[in-house]
Amino acid sequence: MTAEPTTTPAIEFRDVVKRFGDNVVLDGLGFTVEQGDRVTLIGPSGSGKTTILRLLMTLEEADGGLILVDGDPYTHEYRGDKWVRIPEKRRSQIRRRVGMVFQQFNLFPNMTVLENITEGPIHVLGKSRAEAVRRAEELLDQVGMAEKRDAKPNQLSGGQQQRVAIARALAMDPEILLLDEVTSALDPEIVADVLGVLRQIADTTDITMLLVTHEMRFAREVSNRVLMFDQGRIVEEADPETMFTAPTHERTQAFLKAVLDR
Ligand SMILES: Nc1ncnc2c1ncn2[C@@H]1O[C@H](COP(=O)(O)OP(=O)(O)OP(=O)(O)O)[C@@H](O)[C@H]1O
Question: What ipTM was reported for this prediction?
Fold first, then answer.
């Protein structure tokens, strides 16, 4: 009898190809993110980091390869003697395990803060309103936004909106949280607030996190692994300490020198 592997990676990309016209953005990309890992993807602008997150949210479709979430193929699977697309219903079930926070917050402008957070749990997860409100209040407390529960998004600063967006993503009980440049649209003095919220999530939950950021502080303070991505492939991976003090690949050395000297 063959022993079962003890853990299945939370995320696995196998030979994933993604093109936009002639632009080959992912060129046979392979990497895994283990359960509970906090992984930061770094790399040059325009290299395809956001595309990786969008593929995981099914906002884009791969042109080749396999994407697995908790070992479940997310795009195609091999059935009989051919590759077939995963039926939409199964895709959306898998997709529900994944939450995402975007650079531009993407809150619903006509809803209050509380409604933004309870909308998904009530209408998608089928939770009762009372239960959704109770959990939303708990999360608003956690991100320091309890006093703003009845405000509309346009009455909030960017940093406050982003904290609500994080609470909204967590309200869906994701196993995996994707964070795409969540502080790029924020003033520098507010970045630390959002960083604090993410550190707290990392310290108090076992959610798997995949972050794309230009803020090397995030990579250092939130993540336990850093992947350097360049020209469609992972060129180096290491723990943050090693990546920032002793990168081995010349592309990583050049990239880190450029961003850290800025
Ligand atoms: N919908 C699209 N249509 C056409 N090209 C696209 C589309 N989305 C992304 N691209 C292209 O794919 C490449 C990778 O973009 P992506 O946003 O994933 O990069 P990135 O590494 O996240 O960049 P940044 O760090 O600047 O956010 C870029 O060349 C971009 O122009």
Answer: 0.95
State the DSSP H helix or E strand holding residue 16, giving kind and residue range, or none if neither. Answer: strand 11-20
Residue 228 forms beta bridges with which residues?
Answer: 42, 236
Written as one string, the DSSP assignment of 19-34 is EETTEEEEEEEEEEE-
CA 205 to CA 167: how far, in whole Å?
13
- pLDDT (tens digit per residue) in 180-211: 998 887 888 788 888 888 999 999 999 999 99
Q: Tell how far the Cα of 205 is from the centroid of ligand 1, in angstroms.
A: 31
Q: Atom 6 in ligand 1: which residue has the minimum CA distance?
A: 20
- Other Cβ atoms within 10 Å of 230 Cβ, number: 18
Nearest CA to ligand 1 atom 14: 48
d(CA 187, CA 159) in angstroms, rounded, equals 8
3-state SS, residue 76: strand
CA distance 102 to 58: 14
Tokens of 109: 């402008």
Rounded to two decimals, what is the model's pTM? 0.91
Sign of the Cα torsion 51, 53, 58, 62 reads positive
